[in-house]
Known about the structure:
Blueprint: E1 5-11, E2 14-20, H1 29-36, H2 40-48, E3 55-56, E4 62-63
Antiparallel strand pairs: 1-2, 3-4
Helix pairs in contact: 1-2
Amino acid sequence: MLNNVIIFVEKNGKNVGGNFVKERSFYTTKEAAKYIGVSTSTVYRMEKRGLICSIKTPGGERCF
Length: 64
């Protein structure tokens, strides 16, 4: 099981990178958006473009 999730994305021509280092494996869309400094809509667009991946919970929520 993953303890760290690394996200690298490009925002306005600049690379934004970072590590989630909390003691869990997945993050909500809102948490991921806050961490990388974008809106939740942008997180969904990034997922659609294949820049980040998510899983869906049994309740239908996306986790990154």
